[in-house]
Amino acid sequence: MHHLAIGIEHARQRVIAVADDTTVTVIHLDTGEVIATNQIQPDKTYWRNTQKAPGRWPEASQ
Predict the structure, then answer these.
(1) Is residue 62 part of a domain?
(2) pLDDT by residue (tens digit) across 13-30?
């Protein structure tokens, strides 16, 4: 199972998730607001919302 980092502020809201080969985009169903964009990383179980700045543990620069 994989987890999208959408945020607690969007709990129990109606959304639609649109996915392609590399990205999942989560859109609020009533307002059309893009809530999250997540890069698909099959080797990880948690996919960070790339629309938000990293939290306590930012990814290391490559």
Answers:
(1) no
(2) 899 999 999 899 999 999
**Boundaries of domain holding 21:** 3-47
Among residues 26, 46, 22, 21, which one has the least CA distance to residue 37? 26
Q: Is the pLDDT score of 41 beyond 90?
A: no
Quote the number of domains for the chain: 1
Q: What separation in angstroms does the CA of 15 have from each of 18, 42, 45, 47, 59?
A: 10, 22, 21, 17, 27
pTM higher than the cut 0.85: no
Q: Is residue 55 part of a domain?
A: no
